[in-house]
Amino acid sequence: MVIKPKIRGFICTNAHPVGCAENVSRQIDYIKQQPKPDNGPKNVLVVGCSTGYGLASRITSAFGCGAHTLGVCFEREPTAKRTGTAGWYNTAAFHQAAENAGLAFHSINGDAFSDEIKAESIEYIREHMGKIDLVIYSLASPKRKDPESDTVYSSTLKPVGETYTTKTYDTDKDLVHEVTLAPANEEEIANTVKVMGGEDWERWIKALHDAGVLADNCQTTAYTYIGKKLTWPIYGHATIGRAKEDLDRAARALNSQYADINLSAYVSSLKALVTQASSAIPVMPLYISLIYKVMKEEGTHEGCIEQIYRLFTEGLYADNPSLDEANRLRMDGKETNDATQAKIEALWEQVTQDNFHQLSDYQQYHADFLHLFGFGFDNVDYDADVDPEVSW
Ligand code: NAD
Fold first, then answer.
1. 3 phi and psi, to 5 degrees?
2. DSSP H or E segment with residue 297
3. Separation of alpha carbons 292 and 272, rounded Å
4. Which atom of ligand 1 is nearest to the CA of 75?
5. For ligand 1, mutation pick of 58, 59, 139 (most atoms within 8 Å of CB)
6. 45 and 132 in contact (C-beta within 8 Å)?
7. How far is the CA of 278 from the centre of ligand 1 (A)?
8. Measured in angstroms, how far is the CA atom of residue 35 from the centroid of ligand 1?
9. What's the DSSP call for residue 13?
10. Trans-2-enoyl-CoA reductase catalytic domain: from which residue to which, for each copy (predicted)?
C-alpha cells in the first residue's frame, strides 16, 4: 500500500508505519545522546504510552534509564486495507527498538479507564516486574466509561462563566478568523472533570497499591497544561482547566492516602506542543504556531522528548526539584515567563489572515503535525509500497 496523509479537519485519519518508526527512532536517539538521569526508575507503568508526552515518557524511562516499561494505550490495529493509528505503529517501533537494545517491555491495548485493563496490567506486573517505582499518567481522551456505573461521560472544550470571542486558525481552510465560544453549563463542566480529572488516576493507584505492586518511595505524575493569559479562557480557566484542577486535588489525596509506602504524587505542568490531543483544541494551533516562532528565536524551543527528559532530570529524579505553590513540577517556564508571553501577546494582537504566515511558524507546526502520523520525514520514501499490517 502507498500511504499518503488523509487529513480531515484537525486530525489525520491514517498513519505511515515507516514514518512513525522514524519519529520514535529520533526520540530514542535524542535520549541516548543525553547524560543518564541519576537514580532513574527501574519499573515503569505508562498509562497513555503510545503518542505525545506518554510516548516520550516511555522512551525516556527505557532508553534513558534502562527501565522495564509496561505501556497501556488505546490504538487501532491495522488491516490489509486500513492503516493502524500512529500510536499503534509507534508502539510497534518502540518494541522493536527496545528488543534490539535488550530492554524489557510489554504493552496492553485497551481502555485504561476500565477495571479489566487495570487487572490485566497488575497481573503482568506481578508476574514479570515485581514492583513499580514510577507511574506516569498521560491519558488524553474525549470520553470515559465509568466502570462503577457504566455511564459514558464526554468532555467539552468550552469557557467557564462567560462567552469568549477570540482569534483562531483553521488549519483545514488556512484561515485566521474569530471564534465565539459559548460557556459550558454545570453538567458539561462536571462531565469534563469526570473524563480528564483525577478520579481515574486515583483508581489506578488504588488498584496498584491494593495489589501490593507499588514499591516503597514510588513516584507518580499526571500531566497538566497551565498556560497564561492568552490560553486561560479556553484552557486554564475553562472546562479542561477545571479537570486539571481536579488533578491537583487527586495528587494531594494520593500523597496522604499512600504515606505507608511514601508515595510521591505530582502534577507536572508541561508546555504547549502539537499532539493529537492539542490540535483538537480551538485557539491552540494559532497559539502554538506563534510560540514556535518566538521560542525558536529565543533558542528555547522544545518538543515532547526534550520536555520529558528535563522532567526526569530536573524534576522527578532531581535532588531538590523546584515545585510551585501547588506542589507541581513546572517544565513550562520557558513558555510561560512574562518576557516570552509579552512577545507572543504582541504577535497575537497583530496577527491577521494576511500576515499569519510571516508572523507565525506555521511551517513548523504543520511539519510537527505531519510527523505525529509518520508523514513529512525527508528520509522516508512515501511513494514506496509498504505493508500496513505491522503487529506487536
Ligand atoms: P496524546 O493524544 O498524544 O496521547 C494520549 C494517549 O492516551 C495515547 O497514548 C492514547 O492511546 C492514550 N489513550 C487515550 N484514551 C485511552 C483509553 N481510553 N485507554 C487507554 N489509553 C488511552 O496526548 P498528549 O498531548 O500527549 O497528552 C497527554 C497528557 O499531557 C494529557 O493529560 C494532556 O492534557 C497533557 N498535556 C498536553 C500538552 C500539549 O500541548 N499536548 C501540554 C501539557 C500537558
1. -110, 115
2. helix 284-298
3. 10
4. 11
5. 139
6. yes
7. 9
8. 27
9. S
10. 82-317
Number of residues assigned to the chain: 392
Catalytic residue among 89, 223, 235, 309: 235
Q: Establish whether residue 220 lines the binding site of ligand 1, counting it when its CB lies within 6 angstroms of any ligand atom.
A: no
> If you take atom 12 of ligand 1, which residue's CA is the nearest one?
48
Which residues share a beta bridge with 223?
A: 268
Q: Is 118 annotated as a binding residue?
A: no
Amino acid at 85: T
207 is in an annotated binding site: no
146 lines ligand 1 (CB under 6 A): no
The CA distance from 73 to 157, in Å, is: 23
Is 139 annotated in some ligand binding site?
yes
- 51 alpha carbon – ligand 1 mean position (Å): 7
Instruction: Please state which CATH class domain 7-372 belongs to.
Output: alpha beta
- DSSP H helices, 218-303, are 239-257, 284-298
Q: Does the annotation flag 52 for ligand binding?
A: yes
The HSE-up count of residue 324 (CA atoms within 13 Å, CB side) is 13
Q: For every one of its 392 residues, what pLDDT tens digit does the chain have, with 9 covering 90 and above?
A: 999 999 988 889 999 999 999 999 999 999 999 999 989 999 999 999 999 999 999 999 999 999 999 999 999 999 999 999 999 999 999 999 999 999 999 999 999 999 999 999 999 999 999 999 999 999 999 999 999 999 999 999 999 999 999 999 988 888 999 999 999 999 999 999 999 999 999 999 999 999 999 999 999 999 999 999 999 999 999 999 999 999 999 999 999 999 999 999 999 999 999 988 888 888 899 999 999 999 999 999 999 999 999 999 999 999 989 899 999 999 999 999 999 999 999 999 999 999 999 999 999 999 999 999 999 999 999 999 999 999 99
Asked if residues 49 and 138 have their Cβ atoms less than 8 Å apart, the reply is: yes
278 ligand 1 Cβ < 6 A: yes
Domain regions of the chain by residue span: 7-372
235 is catalytic: yes
Which secondary structure element, helix H or strand E, spans residue 157, and what is its range? none
Say whether 48 counts as a known binding-site residue. yes
At a CB cut-off of 8 Å and minimum separation 6, what does 105 contact? 62, 68, 69, 70, 71, 94, 95, 98, 99
Contacts of 104 (CB under 8 A, 6+ apart): 68, 69, 98, 128, 129
Mutation pick for ligand 1 pocket among 11, 74, 193 (CB with most ligand atoms within 8 Å)? 74
